[in-house]
Amino acid sequence: MRAGLLAAVVLLALVTVGHLLTAQQVRQPEGKIAPKTAGLPANQIAALQVDFKNRIDEYLRIRQEAAKGAPKLSETKDPAKIKVAEDSLAARIQTLRANAQPGDIFTPAIQKTIRQLLSPELKGSEGKDTKDILKDDAPKSVPLKVNTRYPEKAPLPTVPSNLLLSLPHLPEELEYRIVGKHLILRDTGADLIVDFMTDAIK
After folding, report:
1. Contact of 146 with 196, CB cutoff 8 Å
2. CA 153 to CA 19: how far, in whole Å?
3. Least packed by Cβ within 10 Å: which of 33, 111, 135, 158?
4. Domain count within the chain
């Protein structure tokens, strides 16, 4: 019974993988969608999508619970009030995720696939350009610790579009940042490091 259910889930993911593969998608001249998959097998991409989405959904569930008593960011443009709202949301998430560990979202299997997806974008002259962009506004370092605040005065480095195209889709509450060789998953409203993976950039 369980094996049949698992097969059905994987089949559904394979059918929809063309729509879920990446943070964004590229349109071919013919109007067809061409997600960046680095030539990986469809079943590997599907497994990544299913597992990654489930983990992101669980984080969003916790975040939604944390947000119930926190001031809403959309209700003010006052920087001081925005800071209070961010701090409140962050503190509530930190409490609910007190036992969070590295790899809760970026599991070893997910990390392996992400490195494979990013690898082609980092080779040759275009890869050199991509790495140069990563260095442009990158902070010297960011402490890699799950469930802690992203340093307040540290810049948020630009993630080149070709790398975003190769990464799994994220909801608006989350974003990717790359610092040095490391990939950070950041909560945009709470300014929290949700998870990270080292050596994403080779």
Report:
1. yes
2. 37
3. 135
4. 1
